[in-house]
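re: ur question from earlier - yeah i can do the single chain one, its not a big deal. heres the input i used so u can compare w yours
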Amino acid sequence: MRSREFELDFRDKATKSRTRGVVLLSLAAVLWVWSAVLLMTPYQADRKPDDAYPVDCESRLFTDRGTANEGGIHGTYCAQERDWPKVLAVLGMSVPLSVAGGTLFAIGTVTRRISSYGQAIRELDKLADRPKA
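and the output i got, formated as tokens:
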């Protein structure tokens, strides 16, 4: 393989790596948004299946009366509808995606920049080796 073809293939692989990193970081961002929605939005809890009048519950994060956080102690349905392990599981799934995505993005970006730097040095060497007029 000639050096130009090798260089283009090298840059193509770096771009693919960077794109995979962006996709993984985007998936992690979706999980972060989902966990924020679970924590910050009010919701309704059914007392029984197909309940016509569900109980209105405060958000898990911005609650004053404690219906969402201390409801399990008092027998309300709000605490059972959105429990903390579900939110933490969503956040936990985002950690490996964030790490892998950040790593792939950084590797792809650095590889492409090193390739561009090498090409610029070769071009400068060609200019320096040209006979002066």
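The chain has a mean pLDDT of 82. not sure if urs matches, ping me
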